[in-house]
Structure formats: structure tokens, C-alpha cells
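Collaboration report, partner site 2.

Our partner group contributed sequences for two proteins of shared interest, and the home lab folded both. The records are reproduced in the order in which they were received, starting with the first partner submission.
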Amino acid sequence: MIWTEGYMRADHVELSWEPDKKKWLVRIRIGEEVIRRQCNAPRDADEQQLRAVAEQAARDEGYEADPAQISILRL
């Protein structure tokens, strides 16, 4: 975990589509802790939109997401 500009940096951020809920699930991993948040981005959102969603979800939780540490799982 690294502090940057008042935010702690998340170790990893992952997005995956939840077909039952028809929403994207954002998982923010900080050490062994995992924060899960759902977002309403469309299923066919492009990678740039989803990365922005992931970064915003992390910021909302007080973390910064390194773009190189964001994974998008499309099933």
C-alpha cells in the first residue's frame, strides 16, 4: 500500500460482469482486504469507460487505482 496525494494506492482493481444482477462488480484489493462495489455501466462499455469506473470506485473508497493494476474480465 502506497500513499499518493492523500489517497492510499490499491494493490489491484478488477471488474467483472455479474449476469444475475446485470451490473459490473468492482473488486478493490488492498493487502488481504477486498472491497466490492457494483456499478451501472452498460455491459458493452468500452475498456476506457470501465477503467474510469474502476478508478472512480477506488477514489470513492479513499484509494487510488494504478491503471496498470486494473483488470477487466469479460465473460
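Second partner submission, folded after the first:
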Amino acid sequence: MQSEITQPLLITVEETMRMMRLGRTKIYALIRQEGLPVHRFGRRVLVDPGELKSWLALRRERTN
């Protein structure tokens, strides 16, 4: 039996921008300067939503 994937495994920078309500420049700054985890496939930059949530939680802990 084949299971259906209901959520995408990876999301685009544009989808990440919408989810985080941040602009493109800020997202790329977070990638470069703060280690927002991404997966690169050639020129494509994709984000794992699970890794994004974990990264945000760790970032919150560090600032508190």
C-alpha cells in the first residue's frame, strides 16, 4: 500500500517568507548569518518545515 504525502517535504524560500512573514532579504540573511537550515539542489534553495520549526525553537531558547 502506498501512503500519500499530505504536506510537502521541502518548501521554497517564497513559502518560507509567507510562513514567517519576512522578506526575501531577511530570509537569506538568516540563512547566511544565523544558520537557518536549507537544502540546496543546484541553484534551488529549499527548507524542511520540520527543521525550520526546530531551528526557531532553538533560536528562541538562545535568546531567553
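Feedback sent to the partner group on the second submission included the following. Residues 11-63 form one domain. The chain has a mean pLDDT of 93.
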